[in-house]
Amino acid sequence: MQAKNYLDGFVQTYFTFPEDEKEQETAVKDINAYFVQNLPVISQGIQRTPSKFEGAVMMSLTDNEATYKVTYSAGEVTTKEVKKGKDTTKQNVVKYHDETTLFTIPYQKVGSAYYISDEPYFSSVPDLQATENQVPTKTWSDSGKTSDSVKKDLDKFTKSLFTAYTTDGDTLKLISRGLSLNKGQEFKSLDQATYESKGDNKYHAVVQITMKNALGTHVENYQFTIEKQKQSYFATDFKHTLPEGKKE
């Protein structure tokens, strides 16, 4: 936690670079203070443009390196001529545009303190969105061959189960194990349900329900086991997911 707090400060300082030249001098001193020593720099091409820190998320942290996903506004400096009376002067104009980058920081710990141990470096942000051919297909079980009368009873139980889930913790404990009372939501409807017999009065249920909260209504998927006990049912082994199927 201490390392993160220290590195968070460095990231914000590094990406905050003002337009005013005197303020830039102060900003450079603030950045260099994190390094403690002056690192060898051969290049003569270092030049900072104005930038505004927007936000950062730490992506990884090891004992000597941290990587952040940083969003910042980068300034593009142009000059324009401005007339003042009979005279014409040049004035810098800065236009900002948003950028996102991965920013990796080498650092070291000495005692209870930290310092930036080498030049940070940038890399492009990878696309974290999986493609269609990388993910398994979600499907409904097509093996729910229960009779109409059994399905009617199981549907009735499932509706009472999710009603209790959002309204009555005492009843919920009597008919299930694995769900906790959730009064922040309201059960609206049972939209789809299949029940596959597993023998010994047990069924594998795959259901989709509609729930309502302050954001509106949304869909939730569940798999669970229903066991008949005398004249009632009991539900266990809840999973918030549909089963995986085969791609066509």
UniProtKB/TrEMBL annotation:
Q: InterPro entries of this UniProt entry?
A: TcpC, TcpC_C
Top-rank taxon: Bacteria
What CDD domains does the entry give? TcpC_C, TcpC_N
The molecule here is called Conjugal transfer protein
Q: Which organism is it from?
A: Lactococcus lactis
What broad taxonomic lineage does this protein's source fall under? Bacteria, Bacillati, Bacillota, Bacilli, Lactobacillales
